[in-house]
Design a protein that fits this description.
The chain is built from 15 helices and seven strands. By secondary structure, it is α/β, with parallel strands linked by helices. The protein folds into three domains: about 90 residues, no CATH class; about 40 residues; about 250 residues, no CATH class. Strands 5-4-3-6-7 form a five-stranded mixed beta sheet, with helices on both faces. Strands 1-2 form a two-stranded antiparallel ribbon. The longest helix is centred in the N-terminal third of the chain and has 24 residues. It starts with a helix and ends in a 25-residue tail after the last helix.
Amino acid sequence: MSDNRKILEKSIKNLRENLDSLSMDKFISTTIESLMNIERDEYLEKINDPKIDKGNGYYERSLKSFSKNSLIVNIPRTRIGFSPSTLELLRINKVQMDQIVLSLYKKGMTGNDIKSFLNEVFDENVSPAKISDLSKVFNQFREAWQKSKLESRYKVVFADVVFITVKRGNEYTKEGVFVAYGVREDNRRELLVLSINPTESAKEWGCLLEELKQRGVQEVDLFVADGLPYLEDEIMRIFPGTSFQKCVVHKMRNILNKTSPKDKKEVASDLKKVFDNFDRYATIEKSLKKKDDFLKKWKVKYPNFKNFFKEGNIEYYFTYIKFAPDVRRMIYTTNSIENINRQIRKTTKNKLSFESPDRLLDYLFMIIKEFEEKNFMKYPVANYKYFKKIEKNEKASDTID
């Protein structure tokens, strides 16, 4: 410890002992005032000309402390406008305050909640309108991302839609937020699509996939989504040769929704057997046979089950079997995109609605990109190194290292 620091600490200690009747808050405010008075004295001594500037009393300022009460500090001033650097050390400047506002906004706090928090902790008054204006800075980042180039090839693209309340014109409605991420060659995952539309449709997905192509995507090995009608047509039109896997979990859920409560457990168990095709010996032919056995077992009690397994459509629910066993559990469902959907729901649940579709997208973009940076891009999924489509005459076991 330097001699100067020892002298300073000793002086502060002596001052504290001589002012032991003061509360700690009062002692701190007295110390701060003393430092600022020293600063003003040094400033006026350096000028040494009252005609240029001179002391002009004090003004009172309330500073929030972590104790029950605020610190009331008398700040020295001059005629021209002297500002002590000691005070600057205690202030939260505008840029820092804006950063705090945006950080709290991203965490899901509402404008009114942020206003109350800042007023309570920092004695700062920030209006919800100001918070909304600050959030618009997210827009420039999202627009830059929408124009950025993407990888030329993605192993898998997962897609889903989440419905969020948003204001469009003068009405508040639930609209579909279209989200898709892709698995890159390095097995990291990247946000590819973030858009909003009043309804979910294959045509809208087609437009979004066209945009991916314009941003440089040339090849997608596998596309995983729910059972939206005609989506496969849009995928094949834009990315010919792409395999398509419809979400098995969605399919099972839809079937169970049409099942009597007393039969749900048994039907669920039977469905799991139909779609349990994760070992190296599984084939599409064997899976379709299990499907036929399931329908045969339940055809009397649930004759409409056959409508869930129509020819020309059911094959898309078994596409995962065409890939190496080590990746099948990751690609037979859209569950992996639920990590993103969970973030969306978590951070929007406190916000009853958004003032416009653009503000919603701006907000979600920052939430998802932050999640992507901390998770998807930071941790490659090791098992995707086994990602490979099995040729007809190739054994599944031959794909395992």
